[in-house]
Amino acid sequence: MHKYLWAIAATLVTTSASALDIDANGGMNTQYIFRGVPQSDGKAAAFGGLDLNQSGFYAGTWASTVNSTPPDPVLTGPAVPAGTASGLEVDLYGGYDGTLGDFNYGIGTTWYTYTDKFDDDYLEFNLKAGWKWFSINAAIGKYDNFAGPRQNYQFYAINAEYNGLYTTIGIFADDFDGNYYEAGYGSTLSAGDTELFDYSLSLIYSDKTLLGGDDDINLVARISKKFHLFSGQ
């Protein structure tokens, strides 16, 4: 799947620029929680990314600061970063998104990697389908797991969104277990016709199976800004 990612990126870059869009983004979370699992030990996390889009095909990269308390070696599962207490998460992804009337769909792949041995690599195949305000996402992946044998995992998310309000139910399967539930609101702050930045507030409940200990509830605030770098006409 690594070759698949690079092939998408190369195709987007070398194809005629007349239809190519390039966007960048950056922002800050009060803490970084991914799929119900804390990634920044309750600390603020900065992030940024770059995306290329052309006729439904996309490729991009995204990075965030990560932090963790040194892990308990008896714990197992996706929530345990078996490495140092800080670093960067760097993601590479690519695929295709399309629409058919009120329906939307997508297929792609994502590679998650980390600096400073914060965690080992994840590589997954992604599918999504939606209708208006409702969508379902699926990920089937492998975790290299430098603390033990390679693990297979599945992740499913059921999402609903209306006028900025949203809710998500996330479910892990295979070698990973646990669920999380998220609800929140997101919008854009504007001054006249100028969009200043995007913001959101989320409440996230993660069960004890997912976290490998006690269940937990977290409130996360986020601000971000998107920058349009290039648009082919």
General description of the model:
The protein has 233 residues and is mostly beta strands. The chain has one domain: Porin (Beta Barrel). The chain has helices at residues 2-14, 208-211, and strands at 20-29, 33-34, 37-38, 45-54, 57-67, 86-100, 103-114, 122-131, 134-143, 151-162, 165-174, 179-191, 194-206, 216-231. The strands form two sheets. A twelve-stranded antiparallel β-barrel has the order 1-4-5-6-7-8-9-10-11-12-13-14. Mean pLDDT is 90; it is low at 72-83.
Parts with pLDDT < 50 across at least 5 consecutive residues: 72-83
Q: Could you tell me the radius of gyration in angstroms?
A: 18 Å
CATH topology-level name: Porin
Helix content range: under 10%
Question: In the CATH hierarchy, what is the class?
Answer: Mainly Beta
What brief labels describe this structure?
233 residues; twelve-stranded antiparallel beta barrel; two-stranded antiparallel ribbon; 7% helix; 63% strand
Could you write a compact summary of the structure shown?
This protein is mostly beta strands and 233 residues long.
Topology:
Elements: H1 2-14, E1 20-29, E2 33-34, E3 37-38, E4 45-54, E5 57-67, E6 86-100, E7 103-114, E8 122-131, E9 134-143, E10 151-162, E11 165-174, E12 179-191, E13 194-206, H2 208-211, E14 216-231
